[in-house]
Sequence to fold (419 residues):
Amino acid sequence: MVIDTFAQDKARPGEDPIRTLRFGVNYTPRHGWFHSWYDFDPGRAREDLAQIAGLGLDHVRVFHLWPLLQPNRTHIRTSAVDQLAHLVDLAGEAGLDVLVDGVQGHLSSFDFYPEWTRSWHHRNVFTDPDAITAQADLLRTLGRALAGRPHLIGLQLGNELNNLVEHNPVTPAEVDHYLDTLLAAARAGLGPHGLVTHSAYDAAWYGDDHPFTPEASARKGDLTTVHPWVFTGDCARRYGPRSPQVHHLAEYGTELAKAYATDPERPVWVQETGAPEPHIPAADAPDFARATVRNATECEGLWGVTWWCSHDVDRSLADFPELEYTLGLFDAAGRPKPIAEALAEAVAEPHIVQPRDTALVLECTPSTRSVSGPGGEYFEAWMRMRERGVRPAVVLAERAEDEGYLAARGIKSVVLPGL
Fold:
C-alpha cells in the first residue's frame, strides 16, 4: 500500500500523518460544468478553488473528459493533459491537494465515450483488449504528467466506472482483469508516490449479482472508496431525510467496506456523499452534512470525507436530473449555501474515533447482496443497533470465528441479526 503522501503537511506535531483526516470536495466548475474543458479558463478555475479553500477544506477531486483526452484509440491530446496538470497546479496554489480521476466515463447521469468506442466502432470498454490497452495508455500518460507534483494525492481509474456496465456487459472475472490491468498502468505512470485507486457506485455493495463486487472495491488499489448516496435504494424517501438511516449512512458504508477487506488496517475513503433535493430538502441539508461528517469520523481507519459537490449546475444547462442542479456547496452564482457553512463547521470540530467492539455478522451471497442495502434485513438490523447506542462493526460470516482477525479489528463479540 503506497500511502506516503496522504497528509504529511497537514499533520500536527506528534500525529501520524497517515491517520490525519482529510476533508474535501468533488470539484464541479461553476461556469459550464465539465463542458468547461472545451474552453478551459484558468482564471475562473482559480476563483472556484479559492472559494473551496475558504471553507477550510484541504483537497479536491477533479475530472477531465475521456473523449477530449483520447479522441482516437492511439492518440492522447497533449494539450488536454496539460490543461489537467495546470488545474492541479492551480489547486496547489490555493492550498488544496488533488486526486485526479482518469477515465470519464460517467459523470452526473451522463456517459462520455470517445467515438472509437461507439456506434460503428463499438467496443466493450471492459472486455475489448484494444480498448483496455488504450485506457491503460491514457492512465500511464496521466500518471507521468502528474508525477512529482507536491499537491497530488494520487490517480484514480475513473468515476464510478461500474455505471458503464449497462452498455458494456461484463463478468466479475473480467472486471477483475480490467481493474488489475488499469491499476498497474496507473502505478507504472505515477511511480512509487501517491495513491492509485478506483471507485464504484453503490451497486457494487448492494446490487445482487452486480459484476463489480465488494471484494474488488475493498481489496484492489491502495484504499477503499465508498459513495454512500441517500437515493440508493430510495433510502431517504424510505426512512425520511432526518432519519438515523440517512444520518448514519456514510458511517454504515464505511463499516461495510471494512468487512470485505483482507487487511484490517486498510483505510476507507467516503469519496462521495451529498444532499440531493428533493431526497434531502434544502432546510435539512445543513443538519445532514453535520451528522454525516460527525458519524463517519467516528470510524477507525477513515481516510476522509469528500463532499459532492463544489458548485451547483447552472439551470441554463439542460437535461440534468433535477437533483443534480442543487448538490453544490455554492450556488450557480458562486454564493455559499447554508450547507457550505454547516460542512465547514463540522470539518473544524474535533473528531474522535469511537471503539467498535461488537460486530454484526453479515451472511450473503452475490445474488443476495441487497440484504446489506437500504430496505434489506441486514441494513435494518445494523441501524436498529445504532439507534440503541451501539456502534456496530460489520464482519462477514466466514470471518466471524477467526479470533486473530477479530482481535486485529478490536472486535470482542459478534452477534447475528435478529438476536
In short: The two ends are 38 Å apart (CA to CA). DSSP finds 14 helices and 13 strands in the chain.
